[in-house]
Amino acid sequence: MTLTETQARVHEAITSGAELARVRIEGCVADTPVLSARESLEIYANMYLCRLVRALQETFPNLARHLGDESFASLAERYLRRHPSEHHDVGQVGRLLPNFLRQNPDPERPWLRDLAELEWARNEIFFAPAPRSVAAGALAAIPLESADRARLVLSPAMQVLVLEHAVTSFWEASADGNHPAPPKAGRSPAAVWRSGFQVHHCPLQADEALALEMARHGESLGRVCATFADREDPSAAASGAIASWFAEGWVVGVESAGIERT
Amino acid sequence: MAFQRLDLGHGIGLRTKHFPQFDSEPSPADWVEVVTENFMAEGGRPIALLEKVRRDTPVVLHGVSLSIGSTDPLSARYLDDLDRLVARIEPAMVTDHLCWGTWRGRYVHDLLPLPYTEETLAHVSSRVASLQDRLGRQILLENPSSYMAYRDSTMTEWEFLAALSLRADCGILLDVNNVYVSANNLGFDPIEYLNGIPPDRVGQFHLAGHSDKGNYLLDTHDAPVPPPVWELYREALRRFGRVPTLVEWDDRIPPLVELVAESRHAEDVEMEELGSVLRSLAS
Q: Range of A182's domain?
């Protein structure tokens, strides 16, 4: 048997869980003084699942805590059969789990997909590059007449999520070891960001989430501020929100008329 | 060509649990090893801490996903990430495993043993040589712990490693615990294994704990180095001399002080075995 054929059969035997796949390779594996060929393959098959389930538990700690070991392992196994790891970093194996839960929702707990999305975002933010943030003074340095056309550059270590359930407080309660009530349904934007090496998240108002998304896509400060038009005092709301973005370190640059100020 | 063994001393793994101490105190070991793939991200705490540690401590990169023995092409994405990390950290050594772990782009995230044949030797040798050309440096490959042997194998693992190191001109990372575990599981003599490894190719030792599963041993890295592995380490020292040595502990990781004590014990064992030679060299 060639090396390619051997690897194809061993891979199938270890990852598919299928009895037939093990039978197909058993003849190529030698019995040892302490292990039969079948036992040898079972050790690797068990380690394959255990290692990846554990990686998923580390990435989705509160989803795993809520489901419990058995239920989470069952979900993980179904997910892994559909989405085997395609990245050299085992920490990336959960990248598609939020989508998997969206496509295969738990009818009684549709919010699990949002919890998974929040936890995946927290994982991504933990490893994101984080350029030095700028102070609000960078904005003050822009001439008043061109302020509307200025653009904010947001940190790659900050994401806006638009969730369908209010899972942010659920996550916090669960992380504290509590068993919170299921999160309520409803459009629930949230920000996830890193400060130093700590990852944070918080709920956002819908208009602020939209403003941040517009800023992310390079819209002018004038258009970003216009998203607060429905507030009682739009100007105060916009300036308050933008001041908080600077304070949290979400802004890493201010661009005006082609000049970047950082 | 020759393989140049470095004189690094005794190292420990830099693991997440000990990040706060490495962040606030000088490194307690002569050198540190990191799992390469855990530090390939462009940002975040791990790489920032590693850059800090690297300022005054040698760092060894130890990969688990190169999959040098797979018949898949080497992953371009992986090699790009490795290039970037090597340039950023300037490690003392770049190491990985003699194994395969991918099939058609899918990662098993395990260190699967290879059938030891001429076909495999030619395949792995050419890939090691091409990787070394790309990196502009020699790499070291570690013997895996095994629970499986192939009927097709025409040579022993030590014969394969010896031939590979010469043909590809690479170094050997000799994991003493893995030799012990595989010897138990596959039924060979660990001393015969050591005697089959060319001394001038060994660039690093690994020591670790394992678990007794009843009829076989599992390489778990979750316990102190057990007495039989210390004994085999003494044999390795007598055959190979002073070699940079790492104590691996990857699960149920103890407090840093305990890990450092295990590393210091390895240093004591080395001194007991090689003390007279080392003292005469120093004088």
A: 105-262
pLDDT at A105: 93
pTM for this one?
A: 0.91
What value of ipTM does the predicted structure carry?
A: 0.94
Q: Give per-residue pLDDT as tens, B197-206.
A: 999 999 999 9
In the structure encoding, which two tokens stand for residue B70, read together? 């797979």
Domain map (residue ranges) of chain B: 10-282
| Predicted confidence (pLDDT) per residue in B164-181, tens digit | 999 999 999 999 999 999
* Residue partners of A187: CB distance under 8 A and separation at least 6: A162, A163, A164, A206
* Interchain CB contact of A88 with B (< 8 Å): yes
Q: Of the candidates A7, A39, A47, which has its C-beta nearest B100's C-beta?
A: A7
Domain count within chain A: 2
A102/B277 Cα distance (integer angstroms): 66
Let me know if residue A254 belongs to a domain.
yes
Residue A146 sits in the same domain as residue A63: no
Last residue in a domain, options A46, A66, A94: A94
Task: With CB atoms and an 8 Å threshold, state whether B148 touches A52.
Answer: no
Across A93-106, average pLDDT: 97
> Is A85's CB within 8 Å of B120's CB?
no
Q: Which residue of A has its CA nearest to B104?
A: A8
- CATH code given to domain B10-282: 3.20.20.150
- If asked whether residues A139 and A257 sit together in one domain, one would say yes
- Asked if A55 is an interface residue toward chain B (Cβ–Cβ < 8 A), one would say yes
Q: Which of A1, A2, A3, A28 to mutate to test the interface with B (most CBs of B within 10 A)?
A: A3
Residue B185 sits at the chain A interface (C-beta within 8 Å):
yes
Within a domain: residue A99? no
- Chain-centre distance of CA B262, in angstroms? 17
- DSSP element (H, E) containing A212: helix A206-216
- Chain B residue whose CA is closest to A55: B109
B203 in helix, strand or coil? strand
